[in-house]
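hey so u asked for the seq, here:
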Amino acid sequence: MWGAKRNQLPPTQAEIFYRRRSGQEHTFRFLKGHLLWHQFQTAETLREEHWVRLSCLAYNQLWAARSLAQSWTTPWQRYLPSHPATLCSPSQVQKDFSRILSSLGTPASFPKPRGNSPGRSLGTRLTPRFRRPYIKKHSPRCHCPPHLRADTV
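ran it, structure tokens below
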């Protein structure tokens, strides 16, 4: 806090807020970098607010699925430790999220095959569409004043 209200916040509460700040900054960085939080720009503020809420919901899903995720390292990341027992970071959960969703399954049933549609019956004649007259454009000659024409100079 700044100015006259600077001394109204007790130091113990200021310390708590300062400790929370680090986690908040990492969350904002992840939202901007991985969930495209700041990419959606429109003239309507309500749509931007919906996009922010949708990004935060996606982050909450990643946070809730962190215990289900497995830490996978690529061959060029051998230096990174692979700890399946510990909780993964949000970016590691995001990499493994397709596997998590496929393991959960879906409540929807499989689509039923219905066969081919019969189409139009034989002998059906459609009425031809109405033909509109062509729009003729102006002649290719220049319509500028005679003293500016290239052919008269």
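The CA atoms of residues 115 and 132 lie 39 Å apart. The chain has a mean pLDDT of 80.
lmk if thats what u needed
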